[in-house]
């Protein structure tokens, strides 16, 4: 049986930072790797620390970045560069945040950034907690845990947030990848919580470690169609591919990319980044954070000097996250977005240290490129108290019933009618099919 000994809070120079010690049985040792399942067992204590402002966050960033970079999920939203931009620019006026860290000895083994949201009926007295994520961006709210001691680290972090927000209803982690240490940590449940899985998304990725020639052959007639579209594009002017990585990928490309995105149907629909000042600030900070680390990539196709297709990418260990793309509607018949994807895939197969391309999307285009769907499932941790069970658990159950039982029974014809209505509503141009 694991016994927890709680020590009084220790005042630091910044009064927003508090420390607690959770003492665990086991022998001492400091040289084991975090991937070793016995790592935490060799340490006598898990130390948890919570910060509530960016100055107090700064001393933890390097260790956080290392832990997230080495995580098996290859998830860019685990990285502090992404979380920093989200916390600065994507919180609602009634929300606040804190970030809890778990250390085994001097090694960081878990990070839990938390957004505190008042409940619709109960308000701030019984708030809901979630990790940073946003459905509009199709991203994950997963967290970084050292695989060797994920269960112990998560247990310590959950105890920490229970002290920080004693009356919270539960914790929500959106779209956690199937290979995340979070699932191993929750395998036997979580003390004080009822664990429920929510809707499962199947975001696609392309494994680029194999033989590229076999991959291109598998696309069949689509390659011929791509070459035909390329010839059609070349008749419009001099075509060039603009790939920027490392020191060449900076903030200066962002304004051109945002203007391209806003020039088409997203601008008319009101969903372009330029339509939302908070989104502009978010992407400005995001681009700056990853550019400073040399992890940002810009991909583009130009006709003359005119950018007709662009894409924002971020490198995360063995993965290249293809987060955002845009294209010029005046060139839609040439399929510039598909031509750009072709160039990015060619480049990816040539990179020996790259394992996967990940657009984090369920879109039809991913199937055209023979990408593999991977499971990303919501995780809900509901407190075992009266209010959470009465007000929070039924809501989660209703969402699960809708996604698991109602949505699969909606006739495909009805779904297609709805999609066509949305396309016509905003006059989104239809790309010529590359599968024909």
For this structure, what is the CATH homologous superfamily of the largest domain? Gcn5-related N-acetyltransferase (GNAT)
**What ranges have pLDDT less than 50 throughout 5 or more consecutive residues?**
1-32
Alpha carbon gyration radius = 23 Å
Q: How many domains make up the coordinates?
A: 2
Average per-residue pLDDT, rounded, comes to 85
Question: Can you describe this structure?
Answer:
The protein is of the alpha+beta class. The protein has helices spanning 54-57, 61-69, 80-89, 150-164, 181-185, 212-218, 221-234, 254-262, 265-269, 277-292, 336-349, 364-368, 386-406, 412-425; strands at 18-23, 45-51, 96-104, 107-119, 123-130, 170-177, 193-207, 239-245, 296-303, 306-316, 319-327, 356-358, 372-383. It has 14 helices and 13 strands. Strand 11, helix 11 and strand 12 form a beta-alpha-beta unit. Strands 1-2-3-4-5-6-13-7-12-11-10-9-8 form a 13-stranded mixed beta sheet, with helices on both faces. Helices cover 34% and strands 27% of the residues. The protein folds into two domains: 18-199 and 376-406, Aminopeptidase; 209-354, Aminopeptidase, CATH 3.40.630.
């Amino acid at each position: 049986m694991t016994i927890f000994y709680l020590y009084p809070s220790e005042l630091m120079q910044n009064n927003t930072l508090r420390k607690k010690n959770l003492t665990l049985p086991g022998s001492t040792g400091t040289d084991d790797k975090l991937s070793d399942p016995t790592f935490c067992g060799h340490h006598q204590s898990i130390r948890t620390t919570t910060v509530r402002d960016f100055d107090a966050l700064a001393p933890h960033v390097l260790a956080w970045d290392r832990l997230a970079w080495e995580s098996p999920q290859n998830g860019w939203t685990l990285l502090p560069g992404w979380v920093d931009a989200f916390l600065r620019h994507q919180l609602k006026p009634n929300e606040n945040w804190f970030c809890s860290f778990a250390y085994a000895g001097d090694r960081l083994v878990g990070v839990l950034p938390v957004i505190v949201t008042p409940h619709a009926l109960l308000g701030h007295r019984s708030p809901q907690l979630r990790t940073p994520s946003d459905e509009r961006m199709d991203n994950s709210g997963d967290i970084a845990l050292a695989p060797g001691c994920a269960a112990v680290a998560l247990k310590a972090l959950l105890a920490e947030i229970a002290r920080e927000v004693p009356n919270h209803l539960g914790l929500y982690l959106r779209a956690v990848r199937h290979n995340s240490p979070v699932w191993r940590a929750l395998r036997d449940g979580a003390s004080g919580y009822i664990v429920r899985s929510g809707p499962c998304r199947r975001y696609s990725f392309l494994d680029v470690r194999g033989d590229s020639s076999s991959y291109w052959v598998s696309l069949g007639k689509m390659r011929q169609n791509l070459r035909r579209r390329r010839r059609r594009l070349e008749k419009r002017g001099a075509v060039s591919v603009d790939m920027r990585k490392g020191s060449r990928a900076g903030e200066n490309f962002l304004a051109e990319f945002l203007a391209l995105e806003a020039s088409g149907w997203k601008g008319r629909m009101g969903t372009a980044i330029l339509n939302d000042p908070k989104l502009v600030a978010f992407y400005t900070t995001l681009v700056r954070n990853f550019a400073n680390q040399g992890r940002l990539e810009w991909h583009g196709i130009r006709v003359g000097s005119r950018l007709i297709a662009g894409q924002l990418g971020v490198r995360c260990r063995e993965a290249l996250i293809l987060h955002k793309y845009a294209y010029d509607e005046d060139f839609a018949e040439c399929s510039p977005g598909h031509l750009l994807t072709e160039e990015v895939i060619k480049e990816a197969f040539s990179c020996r240290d790259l394992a996967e391309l990940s657009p984090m999307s369920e879109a039809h285009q991913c199937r055209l490129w023979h990408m593999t769907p991977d499971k990303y499932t919501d995780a809900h941790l509901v407190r075992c108290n009266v209010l959470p069970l009465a007000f929070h658990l039924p809501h989660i159950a209703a969402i699960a019933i809708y996604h698991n039982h109602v949505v699969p029974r909606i006739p495909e014809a009805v779904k297609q009618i709805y999609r066509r209505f949305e396309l016509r509503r905003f006059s989104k141009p239809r790309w010529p099919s590359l599968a024909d």
